Amino acid sequence: MEFDAIVAANHAAVYRIVTDYDRLERLNSALIESTLIGGEGDPVKRLRQVTKTCILFFCFKATLVEDVEEIGTELVLTTIDPLESDFDYGHTRWEFTAEGDDRTRIRVLSRIKPSFWVPPLIGPWVVRNKMMKEVRETLEQVEVLARRD
Questions:
Q1: Which domain holds residue 84?
Q2: What is the CATH classification number for the domain harbouring 80?
């Protein structure tokens, strides 16, 4: 999955909101738990997330544990731990770029493979469509939260 979007919020606020790992569930209704494992000052953080999602008639709960590395305030890299997750593998690259004082470009490249069964009627297109809907909700919430800061 790839997306490139501009949100109506300044870079510092966007980065602060997206890296507030213990409160990520406020960004998306599918995310029911987000917990930072380990210390705040660790160079590579460990993040546990639990989501509950429904696609058509198929609902499932999934756990995702990933290592998160922040490089400055422009780049966040994540790697899924398949031994503790419901995913065989996954890597995500988040890029944050200031586009003036009150706009931020967010670029994301993500490759993940679930380890759970997906019914044949729900193909890759349906899953991608659902994921993009979740991305839109998340970006809208980032803007809402940034206005409150």
A1: 2-148
A2: 3.30.530.20
